[in-house]
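Retro notes - structure team

What went well: the batch runner handled both jobs without manual restarts.
What didn't: labels got mixed up in the shared folder, which is why I'm recording both outputs here explicitly, each with its sequence directly above its tokens.

Job 1
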Amino acid sequence: MVDADEVYDVEMYNILKENPIFYHCHEYTIIKGLSPSKTYSQDCLSGMKILDLACGQGREIGHLLEKGAQEVIGLDISQEMVETAKKLLSHIEFPGRKFSVYRADCFSSQEVLSVLPLSEYQCYFDAISAFWLHCCAQNLERLSEGFLLCNKLLKLGGEMAFITANPRVATEYETFRELTSHDFFAILKNPGNSNGIPTSEIAFVDLQTREEKFVLIAYIYSLEQFSMVLGDNGFEMVESSGFEANPEFNLNGFSEQFRALICGEYSEGYYIKARKVINK
């Protein structure tokens, strides 16, 4: 495997910006899920304090603030991503709202609590968001440590919403492989297994030439595994589904394969929401 900093710093992550419909489905699904009104509207996150895990270049932090969040703190394993996020967000004004971005491995108690000490941040956040973080956990122990950290930082009754690899990839790999092989920018290839956890390589490609730019390994956890590990760490799973597309978007101009991959049961990413029910 490639070193984490080397992978997460690659400039080709900008290829995601070239697919705004796909990225918007991430944000629409997460923001609507965390909104008390269950809407994607102006100020639908009004007054909320949100922790954004694996914040990357800060795009999601900006959208959470635009939707009314009072405070957003972002964490990312890559120092380069952290600096990029700070630079991006410094050019945007959010009157009365604040943000911070720190470098930390979101699965490491030592690293996270060094920047978010429990003396200040225990049960502090109203909600937690995470985009494509949990499919990077190499084993159930690491996944569990990440959820335990979330329990310590989230208010009782607070909700955590995240996007991960679709659990169906493990059981219907050939269907997903065929769907991604046409006009999609993230191709599934080389399924495998790591200590009992199904894996798949995800190759990001140039949409015009189909040339591979870089490859990541995704760990595919089942809904049963997520439910078990969440339960062990004081959460109950309350929602799970493929991405939801904003009804204002007209997807008729896209191929059937592309539409299947950005929303619905075969979306390459998968949405899970859990509620904290016990302090750990």
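Job 2
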Amino acid sequence: MGTNQVSYKNIERLNISGTEYNDLIVGNSGNDTLSTGNGGSDTIDGGEGDDVLSVNYNGSAAIATTYNATTNTGSIRSGTNQVNYKNIERLNILGTDYNDLIVGNSGNDTLSGGVGNNTLTGGAGNDEFVYNNDYYYSKNTDTITDFGGVGKGSNPSATVIASRDTLQFTSDGLTAQNLQLTPHGNNLEITFENLANSKVILQNFKLENLDNLPATSSQPAIGNILFYGQTSVTDSFDVFDANSTQTNLFNKKTVTFLNDLDNNITGFDNSNDVINGQGGNDIIDGLSGNDILRGGAGNDTLIGGSGNDSLIGGAGNNILDGDADDDVLNVSGSIGNNTLQAGVGNDRLSANASTGDNLLSGSDGNDSLDISGSYMKRYSYYLEDSRSTGNNTLLGGAGNDTLNATGSTGDNLLSGGDGNDSLNISGYYSYSSSFDYLEDSRSTGNNTLLGGVGNDTLSGRGSTGNNLLSGGEGNDYLDISGGEPTLSIVNNTLNGGAGDDTLDATNTKGNNLLSGGDGNDSFNLGIISSDGVPSDLATQTVNGGNGNDLLSMYCYYATKGITSTFNATTNTGSVTADTYLVNYNNVERLNIFGTDYNDLIVGSNGNDTLTGGKGNDSLIGGNGTDTFVFYNYNEGVDDLYDFNATNDLIQISAFYFAGGLSKGSLSANQFTIGTSATTIAQRFIYNDITGGLFFDQDGSAAGFSQIKFAQLSAGLSLTNNNFVVVG
């Protein structure tokens, strides 16, 4: 007991908190408030009056409780902490971080499970069960074994009122709007949309027995659920009787739960209604207002009406019609074949992780249509698969739309319609053996992407299916490139259509067909990563179509030199690097970057840019004004077989060549014809007898000996104007 002591008299109520030691606490004849300490083995006797015992063991073991209603005695234990009590009318128990078993007494108790999978029994009286998800990452499920509902109708009996319990949600994200009530066998499961770790199970409890009722002239407000911030029961939600077939809601601007019948229900105009269909094949029309409509189980039709609505389909074959304004239509995780129609406005349509064949139609406005997903595995035991597996149709309609089928495994059709649209089936593959981690969001089906009118972006990067990408009218960007290590190994068809399009198939190992159509198109091909060399011959076929088209090919990581051909009469040619082959026709300009080996690069009839790179390369520009690119002076000696001093250019890098070069045209005093530099300003020396082209970094043999980096024909009228200096 220590040396601390108090003597009292004429005290009607006591408020005593125990210590961490073994306490003996006895109340008086009044209404006492008694608390255990955080430790010890305590004995507490409330005495006469309406007494409250509060228990908050923050221990290392779960709570276990017992209660004997006949003797009004009980015990509460958590590890070495224990209290034996009697003559207590109300309990206030806060659970631990473990799986607690908490039993109230015959009075009006307050029980909170804390973290873990807890089992709570209130006993007789009007009990309050408190739930929060402040411990979001570890919170699991509370099971209440004897929850007392308000019952059917608006005038519950005295017996119902006497045993009516309250479930109070005390966290910010747990609201009536995202409340979900799901019958499961004989139980009712209470969850919240988008909060996976929050669940309460009411055992042997029917949905229709759960309700909140406002005060009337004959009874006070009573109810079963309080939400965060509420201090008293309000008419926050309504529940239809199991046999009700009415066609209108009870109240405006409230949350309503229907039953398992086939309901045809209409909301209120100018009202933000929340209507939950539950089971049955329901038709729910929200009318005007910012409504939330959930179909639940069954084949449901949800009509948002005007306003910014949120429509959630659930299981079954559903029709979601957003109507006017900016709506959210969602059938993610659905197993049915759904139709999502957005209407006018900037809408978001989602069918992520669905398994059916869905139609998503955006109509007017800047819409987002999404069936994306991924497969993840971590630490051998954690698995998430949110990929859509059906054959889906996504129609953007007018406006600047975003259509996304990343990670889908079905054969999908994505059509942007009018506007500047983004169509995406790209994905990636990531694996780490050291961290036992795998994530795969690549699309595996054979997809069709149609851009339509407008400047569209169509992306199949990393996809493993045989896809068709068609840009339509406008200046479009079509991309099936493979980024290391997610190389595209399949056979794709890319049609640019009218407009100045860009078609990118770099790092692809399949046999692809690229057609530019009308307009000045750009084609990007080549091997740009260390594992980009195809194991078998991969043929890229390029048809530039009408216009002034450009083919760019980059072969940084090839293991053999380039060989190329060109037929000026038929305007056809080929470029080969390792097992990577490009056949092209109707292409007016080439931009070819060579390998680290000895390349043979042949230009076209137009204005080409040829870069030999490392090695002793042979470069043939052909007709037109051609540019021969040198990044450094020590990468080998390139033969420029048909260099024309009247039209052609030599491009050099000021950074890598150094020697005081500046971007722009080469100064006249930095160029000379002869065998060596004659002034310290001269950097480039052309020997018109041999055709050799040299670089001298300081214009003096004393410090830097000139190096030959190119071989031209002899006797050319070469000048400083044939050089252009870049950064």
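One thing worth noting from job 2: The CA atoms of residues 195 and 615 lie 60 Å apart.
We'll revisit the folder naming next retro.
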